[in-house]
UniProtKB/TrEMBL annotation:
This is Volume-regulated anion channel subunit LRRC8C. It is found in: Cell membrane; Endoplasmic reticulum membrane. InterPro entries: Leu-rich_rpt (IPR001611), Leu-rich_rpt_typical-subtyp (IPR003591), LRR_dom_sf (IPR032675), LRR_domain-containing (IPR050216), LRRC8_Pannexin-like (IPR021040). Pfam families: LRR_8, Pannexin_like. Belongs to the LRRC8 family. Keywords: Cell membrane, Disulfide bond, Endoplasmic reticulum, Ion channel, Ion transport, Leucine-rich repeat, Membrane, Phosphoprotein, Repeat, Transmembrane, Transmembrane helix, Transport. Its main location: membrane. The chain crosses the membrane at residues 30-48, 126-146, 257-279, 321-342. Residues 191-205 have a biased composition (Polar residues). SUPFAM superfamilies: L domain-like. Residues 1-338 form the LRRC8 pannexin-like TM region domain. Heterohexamer; oligomerizes with other LRRC8 proteins (LRRC8A, LRRC8B, LRRC8D and/or LRRC8E) to form a heterohexamer. Homoheptamer; inactive, likely because it is not targeted to the plasma membrane in the absence of LRRC8A. In vivo, the subunit composition may depend primarily on expression levels, and heterooligomeric channels containing various proportions of the different LRRC8 proteins may coexist.
Length: 803
């Protein structure tokens, strides 16, 4: 006998698949087992017992004279003899005899086989085998989607992820944080919902209500004492689960093969059910106990007509009716399954009830095979989908990342990264992290916070703990800020630097920083920026003193002009975009520093000459060729710094002499060939940079510059230096490298304050020993070939090497 356990291979392979079997599939599986037992039992009886028993029929006398002798003989042979009467002498000896057939055992077996094959209806013969085959087909149809390669891989992956999500400590912690809030906290949160907002720097720049969590039903409440803090390993495992769920969702939502296969196998079972009911109902009556058999075997047995007894007919009849009942119940269950499949769309799944119960409002709805599997899971236990939903929430993922981030970046580790920035503030730079660690706000001595390439930065209200924070740098970061944090920054933040790729990334909350003094913007803006509402609100920055825009603006925004009454320094660094319409500069009467860098200017803007408070002007990397307008600078009495470097200037006009207030002058990286002697009438100059030009001669009038401290003619064509240069006794830095000089005058010893000297790249053969008189000059400050340095006396060399 075949054990039923051998048929397990036709059911699911893994017990874990049971979560995808709703009650009707489980019920039909049990029905299949019952029908399988009927088939196996019937087949066993067919094999182990006689199928049919046949006897010859008695033939009545006939009036046909031609066969009298045969009939008489047959009658004589088949007519029973009267039982013998017991004799008085031996009354106990009585022999009981039936009808004589003169057939042996082999003939009876032959007759039974012939009648079984010829006379017995096929349904009565093959009923148990039909039951067995139909049941196996039902079982195959029920579990085919678990075995088909295109669907089984998705199911196995889903079951694997589902089990890990269900058992993950993070799921327990996330739900416990939702359910563990006391009623007082809930009431406070409800009262504050209308007032508490968070502001995010997104494309819409809109206000987003603060995320709040609601309670879930009591049966899902998890004791907080059991939901302890995650260790590093558990946090990493949960993080990996989030990534797996994301990738799995993208993969499974592309198609609906699982749904299609389940529908098709259900339809196939319904069709098979109808066929079975139809032919079984019609043929069940063919299973009879008595069967008439008429086979032409008279030449071998002497008989033609037989009466047979189907030994299992009564049992098969009962089993067939029982089988029909099971099949009917099976079919009705399949019809209900079809109704469930088509009653609503199973290719869409909404987590609305989960969002309401857990308060995690960002759980997305899913579709296609992902949705279908979740519907099947709900039939098993809705708790699975609720715990699985935790790993679909970005809020939950961000909380986990924040927890892992806090564990990784402890306050001690952050303090090791502290450094002093260009503004002489204690700065903490954080680059390419997954978020902003909460432990940052425990470093109360922090003065500057620099965040680079960090997505989804959330600045919480705890930033108020940083009493010394004055500077914030956001480089390619998307930032959300709590309303309490914004209030703190409005009062305390002095410097804000924002680097962005798209103008829509500009944080809208920066326009409310009323105490902001310095604003640095680096990124691509639209060319028609004056019509751009993004910068219209600059007028509200009443305390703004320094504004720097490194972008591609074509004209000065009107919003910048609106803050001109208190703006002291403005820097526009373009990417080569031509800056036009500079008349708005005239309104910036309080401007003291102006930088127009790489703006493709061909002339010095006339509007600059109206800035009477201007002290520094930088026109670096433009296309200036002529600077005749320089004469108008004489009206700018406070102008002390003029930088016209990295241009195409070919000469310096004599009008330069009228700029008597100049202290710093930069003409480097131009095409100047001749230095006018009138240049040195600007006798207040302390810094003069003429490097990278085509100058061949230095006028002796340079000796007039008694305040000169920095002088550079690096990379020119100068062949000799005037002795008058050494009259500039305050000179500290002298750069004369990469020229055509062959002799360095011994008078260089007069420069007692000289601390930096560059003579490399000339034609010197020896250095004058008088360099030893320059007591402030050390070896580190002397840029010269090593061989040339060795020409100095040893005592001079030792003196320079000494600290």
């Amino acid at each position: 006998m075949i054990p039923v356990t051998e048929f397990r291979q036709f059911s699911e392979q893994q017990p874990a698949f049971r979560v995808l079997k709703p009650w009707w599939d489980v019920f039909t599986d049990y029905l299949s087992v019952a029908m399988l037992m009927i088939g196996v039992f019937g087949c066993t009886l067919q094999v182990m017992q006689d199928k049919i028993i046949c006897l010859p029929k008695r033939v009545q006398p006939s009036q046909n004279h031609s066969s009298i002798s045969n009939v008489s003989q047959a009658v004589a042979s088949t007519t029973p003899l009267p039982p013998p009467k017991p004799s008085p002498a031996n009354p106990a000896t009585v022999e009981m005899k039936g009808l004589k057939t003169d057939l042996d055992l082999q003939q009876y077996s032959f007759i039974n086989q012939m009648c079984y094959e010829r006379a017995l209806h096929w349904y009565a013969k093959y009923f148990p085998y039909l039951v067995l085959i139909h049941t196996l087909v039902f079982m195959l149809c029920s579990n085919f989607w678990f075995k088909f390669p295109g669907s089984s891989s998705k199911i196995e992956h889903f079951i694997s992820i589902l089990g890990k999500c269900f058992d993950s400590p993070w799921t327990t912690r996330a739900l416990s944080e939702v359910s563990g809030e006391d009623s007082e906290e809930k009431d406070n949160r409800k009262n504050n919902m209308s007032r508490s907002n968070t502001i995010q720097s997104g494309p819409e720049g809109s206000l987003v209500n603060a995320q709040s969590l609601k309670s879930i039903p009591e049966k899902f409440v998890v004791d907080k004492s059991t939901a302890g803090a995650l260790d590093k390993k558990e946090g990493e495992q949960a993080k990996a689960l989030f990534e797996k769920v994301k990738k799995f969702r993208l993969h499974v939502e592309e198609g609906d093969i699982l749904y299609a296969m389940y529908v098709r196998q259900t339809v196939l079972k319904v069709i098979k059910f109808l066929i079975i009911i139809a032919y079984n109902s019609a043929l069940v009556s063919k299973v009879q106990f008595t069967v008439d058999c008429n086979v032409d075997i008279q030449d071998m047995t002497g008989y033609k007509n037989f009466s047979c007894n189907h030994t299992m007919a009564h049992l098969f009849s009962k089993l067939s009716f029982c089988y029909l009942c099971f099949v009917s119940i099976y079919g009705l269950t399949c019809l209900y399954t079809l109704y469930w499949l088509f009653y609503r769309s199973l290719r869409e799944y909404s987590f609305e009830y989960v969002r309401q119960e857990t308060g995690i409002d960002d759980i997305p709805d899913v579709k296609n095979d992902f949705a279908f599997m979740l519907h099947m899971i709900d039939q098993y236990d809705p708790l699975y989908s609720k715990r699985f939903a935790v790993f679909l929430s970005e809020v939950s993922e961000n909380k986990l990342k924040q927890l892992n981030l806090n564990n990784e970046w402890t306050p001690d580790k952050l303090r090791q990264k502290l450094q002093t920035n260009a503004h002489n503030r204690l700065e903490l730079p954080l680059i390419m992290l997954s978020g902003l660690p909460d432990t940052v706000f425990e470093i109360t001595e922090l003065q500057s916070l620099k965040l680079e390439i960090i997505k989804n930065v959330m600045i919480p209200a705890t930033i108020a703990q940083l009493d010394n924070l004055q500077e914030l740098s956001l480089h390619q970061c998307s930032v959300k800020i709590h309303s309490a944090a914004l209030s703190f920054l409005k009062e305390n933040l002095k410097v804000l630097s924002v680097k962005f790729d798209d103008m829509r990334e500009l944080p809208p909350w920066m326009y409310g920083l009323r105490n902001l003094e310095e604003l640095y913007l680096v990124g691509s803006l639209s060319h028609d920026i004056s019509k751009n509402v993004t910068l219209e609100s600059l007028r509200d920055l009443k305390s703004l003193k320094i504004l720097s825009i490194k972008s591609n603006v074509s004209k000065i925004p009107q919003a910048v002009v609106d803050v001109s009454s208190h703006l002291q320094k403005m820097c526009i660094h373009n990417d080569g975009t031509k800056l036009v319409m500079l008349n708005n500069l005239k309104k910036m009467t309080n401007l003291t520093e102006l930088e127009l860098v790489h703006c493709d200017l061909e002339r010095i803007p006339h509007a600059v000459f109206s800035l009477l408070s201007l002290q520094e002007l930088d026109l670096k990397e433009n296309n200036l060729k002529s600077i005749e307008e320089i004469v108008s600078f004489q009206h700018l009495r406070k102008l002390t710094v003029l930088k016209l470097w990295h241009n195409s200037i070919t000469y310096i006009p004599e009008h330069i002499k009228k700029l008597t207030s100049l202290e710093r002058l930069a003409f480097s990286h131009n095409k100047i060939e001749v230095l006018p002697s009138h240049l040195f009438l600007c006798n207040k100059i302390r810094y003069l940079d003429l490097s990278y030009n085509d100058i061949r001669f230095i006028p002796p009038e340079i000796g007039v510059l008694q305040s000169l401290q920095y002088f550079s003619i690096t990379c020119n064509k100068v062949e000799s230096l005037p002795d008058e240069l050494y009259f500039c006794k305050k000179l500290k830095t002298l750069k004369i490298g990469k020229n055509s000089l062959s002799v360095l005058s011994p008078k260089i010893g007069n420069l007692l304050f000289l601390s930096y000297l560059d003579v490399k790249g000339n034609h010197f053969e020896i250095l004058p020993p008088e360099l030893g008189d320059c007591r402030a000059l050390k070896r580190a400050g002397l840029v010269v070939e090593d061989a040339l340095f060795e020409t100095l006396p040893s005592d001079v060399r030792e003196q320079m090497k000494a600290e």
